[in-house]
Amino acid sequence: MSPQANPPRVLVVNGPNLDLLGRREPEVYGTDTLDVLVDRCRRVAGELGLEVDARQSNHEGVLIDAVHEAMTGHGGVIINPGGYTHTSVALRDALAALPVPVVEIHLSNVHAREAFRSHSYVSPVATAVIAGAGVTGYDLALRFLAERIVRRT
Ligand code: DQA
Questions:
Q1: Which residues of the sequence carry a binding annotation for substrate (predicted)?
Q2: Which residues lie below 8 Å from residue 112, measured CB to CB, with a gap of 6+?
């Protein structure tokens, strides 16, 4: 796709402990670092006619503030809420308020792990959920949002 002057922007939010990617349980989460993951997202987004804004925090309130950015500035959100997936009503409420599609993503297949990981506060307010595809899941999420955003603009 040829580059656009102002491509639609997608917010990619990574939650707690994802700053440790590459070093944290690599047998579960893979060996790519967060920087590698974000660079990959930017490249794939560019190929799809999108632009990526990336945020990562270990703090619930900071993640909620990041999600609020997408109230106005973004065409869609990809979020890996990390452990907050399974605990945070407040993050879910922030995502539910968004007027744009939300993709919940997990590197690991949360349903094949401990029972507590099978429950997500986020899934009921997400447009789509991807789990277990590793970093490729972010590519898939971007493709999905490109279909939803680019083809409609
Ligand atoms: C995770 C799965 C969560 O259960 C866990 O707390 C994470 C990462 C994943 O990407 O597979 O931090 O969201």
A1: 80, 86, 93, 107-108, 117
A2: 132
Q: Can you read off the two tokens belonging to residue 55?
A: 């945020």
Residues in the chain: 153
* Predicted local confidence at residue 150, as pLDDT: 74
Give the rounded distance of the alpha carbon of 94 from its chain centre: 14
Which ligand 1 atom sits closest to the C-alpha of 109?
11
Contact, 78 vs 137, CB < 8 A? no
Per-residue DSSP letter, 22 = T
Contact 68, 95 (CB under 8 A): no
Q: Is 55 in the pocket of ligand 1 (CB under 6 A)?
A: no
Could you list the active site residues?
A: 29, 106
Whether 17 is in the pocket of ligand 1, judged by its Cβ within 6 Å, is yes
What distance lies between CA 85 and its chain's CA centroid?
12
CATH architecture of 9-152: 3-Layer(aba) Sandwich (3.40)
* Range in 3-7, 52-56, 87-91 the model is least confident about: 3-7
pLDDT digits (tens, 9 = 90+) for 67-108: 999 999 899 999 999 999 999 999 999 999 999 999 999 999
**Mean pLDDT score of the chain, rounded to an integer?**
95
